[in-house]
Design brief:
Elements (H helix, E strand, L loop, with lengths): L2 H18 L1 E9 L9 E4 L5 E3 L5 E6 L5 E5 L6 E4 L4 E5 L28 E5 H7 L5 H8 L3 E3 L14 E3 L7 E5 L2 E2 L29 E7 L4 H4 L6 E7 L5 E12 L9 E16 L3 E12 L22 E14 L4 E17 L6 E4 L5 E3 L15 E19 L2 E19 L13 E22 L6 E17 L32 E17 L4 E12 L3 E15 L2 E12 L3 H5 L2 E7 L2 E7 L5 H5 L8 E14 L3 E18 L3 E2 L6 H6 L4 E3 L1 E22 L2 E19 L9 H4 L2 H8 L5 E11 L2 E10 L2 E4 L5 E4 L2 E11 L4 E8 L31 E9 L1
Parallel strand pairs: 1-7, 11-14, 31-35
Antiparallel strand pairs: 1-4, 2-3, 2-5, 5-6, 8-13, 9-10, 11-12, 13-14, 15-16, 15-44, 16-17, 17-18, 18-19, 19-22, 20-21, 22-23, 23-24, 24-25, 25-26, 26-27, 27-28, 28-29, 29-32, 30-31, 32-33, 33-36, 34-35, 36-37, 37-38, 38-39, 39-42, 40-41, 42-43, 43-44
Amino acid sequence: MNKKLLIVPLVLASSTAWAQSRTVSGQILDAAGAPIIGATVVEKGTNNGISTDAAGRFVLRARTAQPRLQISALGYTSQEVGTEGPVAVHLAANSTALEGVQVVGTRSLNRSVTDSPSPVDIIDVRQVTAKTGQLDVNQLLQFVAPSFNSNRQTGADGADHVDPASLRGLGPDQTLVLVNGKRWHQSALVNLFGSRGRGNTGTDLNTIPAASIERIEILRDGASAQYGSDAIAGVINIVLKTSTKELTANANYGAYTAKYRFDDKTFDGGNFNANANYGVAVGQGGFVNATVDFNLREHTQRANVPAPDGIQRREYGDPKATNTSVYLNSKLPLSEKVYAYVFGGINVRKGDAYAYTRFPTIGTDSLGHDIPNPRSNATLYPNGFDPIITSSIFDGQGVAGMRGTFGQWDVDLSNGFGSNNFHYGVKNTLNATLGPQSPTTFDAGGFQLQQDVVDLNVSRNYKTVLQGLNLAFGSEYRREWYALFAGEAGSYLKYPGALNDRPGGSQGFPGFQPRNEVKASRSNIGVYADAELDVTKALLVEGAVRFENYTDFGSNFTGKLATRLKLSDAFSLRGTLSTGFRAPSLAQINFNTVFTNVVGGKPVDILLDRNDGPVSRAVGIPALRQELSRSASVGFTGRAGSVLTFTVDGYYIHIKDRIVLTGTFGSDDNIIGPTLTALNVGQAQFFANAASTSTFGLDAVVANTLGVGIGRLTTTLAANLNRLNVTSVQATPLLAGKEDIFFGAREQAFVKASAPPFKINLTLDYSLGRFGALVRFVEFGGVSLIDYNGDLNRYNPRLTTDVALSYALTNQLRLSVGSSNLFNKYPNFFNPQATETGGAWDPVQMGSNGRFLFAKLQARF
């Protein structure tokens, strides 16, 4: 068939659609007539949409002859309007929205809320996912939110399967995650290896599919007094979709260009994602919205690199993972002023991650003969072997509640239950003490964390008190359970016999033993009150206090003050002062295991004792206590003319008694070595409140929207500058003078490298009719780590470039193609026998996989 005959209908269809389209313009205002900045305007039944500028205006090239517009904005009731005449829409305030982070003001073009006394980013997930190559929430936020940091780990055991993430360079467990304003559960995993989050637990954001999310609100400020424990760095609130009578579906595929491999494959790390979302209306103003999402991510292979000292591992790269998620969000009207709601979902993940290679030999003897590796077996694996650590993770949470207006009071009562179960396996392995008869696959055990939260919030607005007073108070009861369960016997036992001198257990990941098993629980109750007073139309003052009591370590009291002063309609000053805390997680208190680390190319078995275990007590490690923080921020927000907006906020965060994973003590230590020997322990490390840190930083966001020709160009410059210092190390009395081991330079470097000293994002987004183009530059500041040889590994700053092009094939279908890290940038190379991961680099913020090419087909009906 002549290919030209296939092209002609497409050209004619495109030309006809262009000819039938017309330009629709208008302005979106609030009830008082003020412009709503960043309101979303979508042509109904199409994937065609735009947001309003700093004057609340929009210009949209419609694709249908008689278009109808769906208009929505944060904190306002959505409307659908026709376009028969000039479009001038006044949106009514939505006083019963489900948002947990109460954003003051409206959404702006730069995602920051300029009228809030605290810095808040608003990320429209639909717009971001339509134009970028990132598919999961962590990577999506990594490239659009300057203060958010996450990098994929490799060679880090459980952290290969759960990406740690943080705000402002603090720990993954120092950011509170909410979904629809309700506290979400954490992962059961404690990060032990990798370049970030060591000794921390955190929330696995990737269990929530991006296709189910309407927007993400990031409160970049200490908020323990408002939301409780974990909110030292801030709050991430994920708001699920509420749309009805609309089907959206997406199919995405991308892969990396494999610059460094053993074989000649051009691509690896294939990533396929397919999802669908649909909502139905229920009663007056109610809805049920559901999402199904499937994601398959293949291994990358980055072992064969031009490293200066050879190859330590034959397999090194991203883990393989399959994610299947089902999520639901609903609002069910019970009367004119009362409704029930149910939301939540489940995620099932299967993962395969590379462990260190077990080579067949470990050197030669004095006669030049090969020395067999005692951790391998020549019969089973003549060429050695590469163990695979598998994961089976089940994650789910559901929240049910009721909200309504009773007299003048808004009351919200809910109960949420969440669970994370992490089960390890090991394959392509052996138990060396069993010789050739060893199984090659083992069940290695795992752990589970569960959380149940009952939450009551009551608020009232007094419009006649000065310029307006909002009072709120409430209480939260939370109960948590943690369990660690053993694997099968062969995964941890050293069997008697001729090979008893060899290491026991499954190579790559020794299984949890019955002596590691634990079941623990605790409960916590908190009460809070806060007030927001508009003293004048220009001056806003906020205050919050909170008291919490934990059954396992006692009570804590926190407070917060915030203010915003409008010097004009175009410029405001703002600032906050707060105290905060984070309770030690049940996992940090109770986790214990014997694990294998590889130091200088040699496997070493290390005991990590539980906080109240016999080894910890014998060497004087005290019971964990809460981390305490003091925070302050000051900044300004505003706009210049009708097209440019800006926010700048400086911050300071001091954290006392941070919980970290200590360095490793050996049986040759002159202080606690005899104790370890008596307990038959060769090496050990512990959880402890070992350090205090201070963080200084600056967040800045500037955005501008201009008409360029008959199209529209939005430019956003966003930056985070961040510096963390370890101000003191508090060793236990028995280990005084050993601070260099207890929490020395190497461990401190990992904490400091949790965020680069700067991250700058410049995004250019241009739209013209059915065409769209996005170019994004992200500069990651350099970080320094210390390897096992004590050498400084300096990862220099790197600039990555992303490009995406899109075209609306029809009113319902849009095709996007592009590349992330277009110019194939990599981190610096170092000695793989001395890095934390056994590869030529450690996992750092920019990633180590190179160029990613992708294509997306998006449907909207």
